[in-house]
């Protein structure tokens, strides 16, 4: 019937492929430079990081990572000499700058907050989203289209506009600056994405599986549990990763509604300062640690990305 | 086949038994499954929204909770429409939205069009290009501040190296005329891949036989592009443009960390003004009214967006 691609009259010529490839590779390389630069900066010493001209070749150091995880105080050389031998690499590096480690920094607790809030809200959003998506997919729900639009529209609310009443509400309920408050909020934002994405995935699972299971004596609930859920695993996993990325990256709510105990990493990283301005190697180190999970997820998700960013509408 | 069997069995089963098999009725189960989500959204999104509407008619200030709250009627809305600062913020937002969308659509579509040539290794390079859009806008804004530093920043250094302008005079973030462009550059860097990915889906949705027919009719490449490629990819381009439009209209995190609205208020987009009014000046009633106005605008756009989504879905 139709021509095969090998002999197709419309296949791009070898030459046009080569030019297209060259332009795309050039764009990809240029667009990745800022990220490589941050990665490189995280292994520079503070003087190297602010050298002019910017240093491309440098002696790698983990001082940035040391500074990220510790707080330090300046001491006199006499005091430092009176201390015992340095314990560990960080201690040694810090002493060269006439400082001693005073204690751990807030980075680790903030990072842990990010983990708890991201995983907690993702679990809740995917749980609620799976149930709702199944409901919308399999049953005749009155006003289904309006409800689905209502669910999606909540995701488009400007975060600062929502934050004003949420701020007051959380103050009344004692949820300000708590992980529970943030988990509830992120669940509400993510559940809209979860419902829309999962509805697409569940729509693709043939109803016959459940019907067969129900003939075998399963109840609707058992059929959902034993046949639909196992079939939807890929979709649920992809949805969970999208929710996780949103919660992990979120800044506006976190900056306005948390200040201490429940603060996540995004509002914390910009506040890392050294002596005289931002401690760029430490900021870069924090940024690197924060971005690595996202890089891994992007690679895992690359086949589902399109679906995720269009709320399940475009499938490929 | 199986479907019909199921129907037959269902019809043959006596009603009470059928109920027992299903456990809960389908209608009950549907509501049981859907209501938790609806309740959560009512509690976390709709209830606060109603509260904000109420506050927008008052002079309430969140930093003085014990003061007597006065009802102002529509005074807050009237003041916003007459407020010079609000109009400047809306202009700044419009400038930002217009240029980011224009640049992202042009570059994004071109990239998609090139990737569609399916050169060797295109999948790998596409994934690499997609990385920036997955990152946290706040963290991105913060590290671009480093790249924009005069002299020591990589961006400033490369620009001065290429153009020969002395490195100390490239002040992307503190120069009044450059600062609006600094946020446009970062946003374009970050979100062009998003537009590209959706355009790519649009290009791939065009069936090959249309091009074959055009080839048979000896339509030129130029003609094919304007009469087939562009019109058929257009719904997808619109989808990307609408979504980026909504997102950039309410842009907050990246700009807040990159310039904080400065220098002065040259990059103060609507969300930054809202934050300053609500959480720095603590004019809660006034800022709620502004929030409601922004929300209505976004809601209108979202409505169009969902229609566009459904249109693309039918393809």
Automatic annotation (TrEMBL), chain A:
It holds the Pfam family BPD_transp_1. This is Sugar ABC transporter permease. InterPro entries: BP-dep_ABC_trans_perm (IPR050901), MetI-like (IPR000515), MetI-like_sf (IPR035906). The lineage of its organism: Bacteria, Pseudomonadati, Pseudomonadota, Alphaproteobacteria, Hyphomicrobiales. One of its GO terms (cellular component) is plasma membrane. It is a multi-pass membrane protein. It comes from the Bacteria. The keyword Iron does not apply. The chain crosses the membrane at residues 20-40, 115-136, 148-170, 182-202, 223-248, 280-301. Belongs to the binding-protein-dependent transport system permease family. GO terms for biological process: transmembrane transport. PANTHER family: ABC TRANSPORTER PERMEASE PROTEIN, MALTOSE TRANSPORT SYSTEM PERMEASE-RELATED. It is found in: Cell membrane. Gene3D superfamilies: MetI-like. Keywords: Cell membrane, Membrane, Transmembrane, Transmembrane helix, Transport.
């Amino acid at each position: 019937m139709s021509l095969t691609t090998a002999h197709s009259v419309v296949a791009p010529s070898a030459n046009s492929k080569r030019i297209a490839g060259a332009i795309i590779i050039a764009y990809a390389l240029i667009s990745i430079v800022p990220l490589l630069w941050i990665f490189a900066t995280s292994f520079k010493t503070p003087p190297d990081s602010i050298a002019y001209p910017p240093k491309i070749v440098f002696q790698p150091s983990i001082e940035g990572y040391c500074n990220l995880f510790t707080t330090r105080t300046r001491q006199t050389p006499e005091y430092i000499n009176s201390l015992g031998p340095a314990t560990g690499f960080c201690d040694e590096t810090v002493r060269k700058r006439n400082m001693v480690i005073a204690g751990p920094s807030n980075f680790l607790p903030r990072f842990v907050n990010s983990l708890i809030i991201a995983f907690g809200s993702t679990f809740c959003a995917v749980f609620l989203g799976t149930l709702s998506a199944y409901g919308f997919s399999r049953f005749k729900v009155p006003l289904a289209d309006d409800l689905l639009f209502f669910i999606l529209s909540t995701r488009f609310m400007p975060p600062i506009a929502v934050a004003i009443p949420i701020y007051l509400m959380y103050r009344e309920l004692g949820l300000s600056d708590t992980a529970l408050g943030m988990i509830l909020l992120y669940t509400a934002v993510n559940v809209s994405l979860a419902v829309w994405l999962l509805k697409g995935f569940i729509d693709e699972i043939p109803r016959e599986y459940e019907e067969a299971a129900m003939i075998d004596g399963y109840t609707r609930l058992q059929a959902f549990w034993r046949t639909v859920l196992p079939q939807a695993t890929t979709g649920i996993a992809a949805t969970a990763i999208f929710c996780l990325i949103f919660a992990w990256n979120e800044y506006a709510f976190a900056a306005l509604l948390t200040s201490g105990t429940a603060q996540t990493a995004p509002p914390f990283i910009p506040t890392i300062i050294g002596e005289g301005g931002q401690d760029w190697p430490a900021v870069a180190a924090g940024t690197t640690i924060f971005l690595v999970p996202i890089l891994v997820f992007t690679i895992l998700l690359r086949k589902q990305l399109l679906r995720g960013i269009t709320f399940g509408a475009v499938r490929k | 086949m199986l479907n019909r069997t199921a129907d037959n069995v269902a019809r043959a089963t006596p009603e009470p038994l059928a109920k027992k098999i299903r456990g809960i009725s389908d209608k009950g189960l549907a509501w049981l499954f859907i209501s938790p989500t609806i309740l959560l959204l009512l509690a976390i999104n709709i209830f606060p929204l109603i509260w904000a509407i109420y506050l927008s008619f008052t002079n309430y200030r969140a930093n003085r909770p014990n003061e007597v709250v006065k009802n102002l009627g529509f005074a807050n809305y009237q003041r916003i429409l007459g407020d010079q600062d609000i109009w400047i913020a809306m202009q700044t937002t419009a400038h930002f939205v217009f240029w980011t969308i224009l640049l992202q659509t042009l570059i994004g579509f071109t990239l998609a069009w090139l990737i569609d040539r399916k050169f060797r290794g295109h999948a790998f390079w596409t994934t690499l290009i997609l990385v920036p859009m997955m990152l946290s806008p706040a963290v991105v804004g913060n590290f671009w501040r480093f790249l924009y530093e005069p002299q020591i920043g990589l961006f400033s250094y490369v620009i001065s190296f290429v153009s020969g302008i002395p490195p100390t005079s490239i002040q992307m973030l503190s120069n009044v005329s450059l600062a609006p462009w600094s946020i446009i550059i970062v946003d374009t860097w970050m979100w062009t891949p998003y537009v590209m990915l959706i355009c790519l889906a649009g290009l791939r949705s065009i069936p090959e036989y249309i091009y074959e027919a055009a080839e048979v009719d000896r339509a030129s490449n130029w003609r094919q592009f304007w009469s087939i490629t562009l019109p058929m990819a257009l719904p997808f381009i619109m989808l990307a443009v609408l979504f980026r439009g909504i997102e950039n209209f309410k842009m907050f995190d990246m700009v807040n960390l990159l310039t904080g609205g400065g220098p002065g208020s040259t990059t103060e987009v609507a969300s930054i003004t809202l934050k300053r009014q609500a959480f720095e000046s603590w004019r809660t009633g006034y800022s709620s009214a502004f929030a409601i106005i922004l929300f209505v605008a976004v809601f209108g756009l979202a409505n169009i967006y969902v229609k566009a989504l459904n249109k693309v879905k039918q393809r």
